[in-house]
Amino acid sequence: MSEADVSRRSALAATGAAVAAGAVLGTGGTAGAETVERPFRADARSRAGRPNVLLILADDLGWADLSCYGSPHIRTPNLDRLARDGVRFTDGYSAAPICSPTRFGLYTGRYPGRLRGGLEEPIARPDELHGIPPEHPTLASLLKDAGYSTAMFGKWHCGYLPWYSPLRSGWDTFFGNLSGAVDYYSKISGTEVDLYEGEVPTEDLGYYTDTIADRAAAHIRRRHDRPWLVNLNFTAPHWPWEAPGDHEESARITARSRAGDARALWHEDGGSLDTYRRMVEAMDAAIGRVLRAVRDTGRERDTLVLFASDNGGERWSYQWPLSGGKGDLNEGGVRVPTILRWPARLRPRQVSDVPVASQDWTATILEIAGARPAATHPLDGRSLAPYLLEGARAPRHDLFWRTRDARALRRGRWKYLRAGRDARDALYDLTADPREQADLARHHPEVVRQLAARWQEIDRTLLPYP
Length: 466
Prior knowledge:
11 helices; 17 strands; 15% strand; 2 domains; Alkaline Phosphatase, subunit A; globular; Arylsulfatase, C-terminal domain; arylsulfatase activity
């Protein structure tokens, strides 16, 4: 889709749809002329130095789980304010529909399938083959080489000790969990506590969403003599379904886990829409405290903040109008809320429907920060920096996904999808049909052929599934 298409037609349609869904920024769903989004336009005249980078990742947050994306019952005033002060992307995507492959894509800027660990959907247990190799360049290592300090707070999920950890992949500071999920209070995962200060096991009985946010805020408030990268990786609103104050439920799940119940954390007998609401709203409040720390240090204007989710929503998520969810390559599995703010360079109250995936943000941040990708490990992502900062045409590139059982590729308005091993090839016009209900494959066989061939071309460059 061309930038002209975006500015003339698609972005206006996206804005209208957002308003119709109640996605009006900073007003709790009440429309006001001063808060309605405008189609994105770069401010090519503004200039700024290298920004701090605050990269916030939610876990299993659905596309419409924020009030600025149309949630009818979840209120997220801090993320709404972030969107109001920056750019909201209607067509933001995760690298994969599952936790750890997306993190591989975000941290390396490459397709998850370029590494053995990226084939795990997700990484479920310690294995010396399943992780980001310490020698592989990452967003953190490349920014560190360019003079940034680097820190991560929260979920890693890219490999276990003794082989892998954030400290071995470019982060100077780490406080968080290595696995895919922990109890929000006990931090139990399996039969053991999964919480680390660096690579040293530690314990904390606070509500995990608050704990990691407060640690990130304290880190940001410290005196810094160089630009910084902070990755804040929430486990919210991933199961177990525990909101602030749910101590009894935590004790029950923790006891089951310690007794060897491998599925206790899945919490298949718990949760509710109200619990999920409170989990998301607690995360929003925690993000508000972190953003306040940025503001209080006087660096808000010079800090680039990117918020996204690692994949689509799960059991209690609100996805309308998308179909599918976590684990699927339908839009509901990979399209995620995505917000970008950088006051020094980006105008507020804007919306963009340019398709952008996790790897593209890696390339974008590296370019903005003046860091060079490693020639030995070329990026698969495409930088949006010229589009965002200079008004250039948005990258015209295909978005590619695969899982063990499914495949998908997006090119402009078209999405090619084979939803399962025995499924037929389908084609959807996402501009008209984001719910993927009208299969147009038989009407446009040449488009299907081209997109399927391109998918296979990329797939041949990746590792096969074991």
